[in-house]
Amino acid sequence: MKIVDSILKMNDKVLHFIACLVLTMTVGEIGALSAALTKEGADWLYKKNCNVGSGWDWGDILADTAGIMLGSLIRRMFLHY
């Protein structure tokens, strides 16, 4: 089961990356960053108060940051806004 858990965890990072990439290209860096921090904050609160969820995950933040950086680069190089 550890392999399945690893794959699911990796897919979660890919989803974080893609979500922030798309958000950055549509609503901008501030919108994507706000969404990423809100999501991790909610995970942290649910884990702390209800003992459910994954809690704060720096790996998610790293994937979010990479998505925001690539989305920003694409916006500035190709979309010119």
- Class by alpha and beta content: mainly alpha
Shape: flat
How can the largest sheet be summarized?
none
Mean pLDDT level: 87
Q: How far apart are the termini?
A: 45 Å
- Ranges where pLDDT stays below 50 over 5 or more residues in a row are none
DSSP summary, beta strand count: 0
Individual helix count: 3
Provide the β-strand percentage band.
Answer: under 5%
Helix content: over 70%
Order of helices and strands: HHH
Tell me the radius of gyration.
14 Å
Summarize the structure.
Helix content is 86%, strand content 0%.
How would you describe what is shown here?
This protein has three helices and no strands. The chain has helices at 2-27, 29-50, 58-79. Helix 1 (2-27) packs antiparallel against helix 2 (29-50) and helix 2 packs antiparallel against helix 3 (58-79). 17% of the residues are buried.
Task: Provide keyphrases for this structure.
mainly alpha; 81 residues
Describe the secondary structure blueprint for this structure.
Elements: H1 2-27, H2 29-50, H3 58-79
Helix pairs in contact: 1-2, 1-3, 2-3
